[in-house]
Amino acid sequence: MWQLNLSSKCITSIWVNNRNMKKKTFLICQILLLIWFFLDMTGVYFKDSYLVTRSYIDDGLFFLIYLSTVVLFLIKDKIGKWAVLAWSVIWFIAQFMSHELVTITGNGYENKTHYFEGAVKWLEIDGVYVPDVYHTVLHILILAVTVTGLVYVFGRKKPEEAKT
Questions:
Q1: I need a labelling partner for 41 at 20 to 30 A (CA). Which of 64, 67, 128, 158 fits?
Q2: Strand, helix or coil at 54?
Q3: From start to end of 6-142, where are the E strands?
Q4: What span, in angstroms and rounded, lies between the C-alpha atoms of 57 and 17?
Q5: Residue 38 bridge partners (DSSP)
Q6: Long-range own/partner contacts, residues 42-48 (CB < 8 A, 24 or more apart)
Q7: C-beta of residue 151 within 8 angstroms of C-beta of residue 16
Q8: What is the rounded CA–CA span in Å between residue 138 and residue 134?
Q9: Where are the chain's structural domains?
Q10: Torsion of CA 156, 160, 162, 164, to 10 degrees
Q11: pTM of the entire structure?
Q12: Rounded-to-integer distance, Cα 34 and Cα 28, Å
């Protein structure tokens, strides 16, 4: 009987040292984020609540910019990886300042709770803004694209990869 005995250190080492795996992981995160963000263009509604409202008028330009960076990455990897990474860093900072900073400082609490009143939420705490489900997943995916992008762009290269 075959037995596979891989430690987490071994798996991490394989992933960190394999440039192709880093690129695939980076691309998978980009596609997941693109699909999730597309929900913002169409809206997802339930009987008495919503995951995200249809916001193509407000967020359509942001979607097109992100879509353009992903397409650029697919066509021209050397330029596209920088475009995706730069946009995801800017986007994460903007989202952090718009959502998590409100949770941390409490400033703008009334506006956020009123604006996302019908959204599906993880939990509700009086006097504390907790980002709704859609925005929490969005922030995690933006962070995943940013982290995998940093690993892909700045990660160690094997000597034979550095020459190409």
A1: 128
A2: coil
A3: 44-45, 50-52
A4: 42
A5: none
A6: 44/134, 46/120, 48/118
A7: yes
A8: 6
A9: 18-162
A10: -140
A11: 0.78
A12: 10
- Extract the tokens encoding 131: 């980002």
Longest Cα separation, the chain = 62
The total of other beta-carbon atoms located within 10 Å of residue 91's CB is 21
Task: Give, in order, the Cα–Cα distances in Å from 13 to each of 23, 127, 162.
Answer: 15, 45, 18
- pLDDT tens digits, the chain, 164 residues: what are they? 445 454 545 444 444 558 789 999 999 999 999 999 999 999 899 998 888 888 888 888 999 999 999 999 999 999 999 999 999 999 999 888 777 766 666 665 556 566 667 778 888 777 777 778 888 899 999 999 999 999 999 987 655 555 55
What is the residue whose two structure tokens read 């409202």? 53
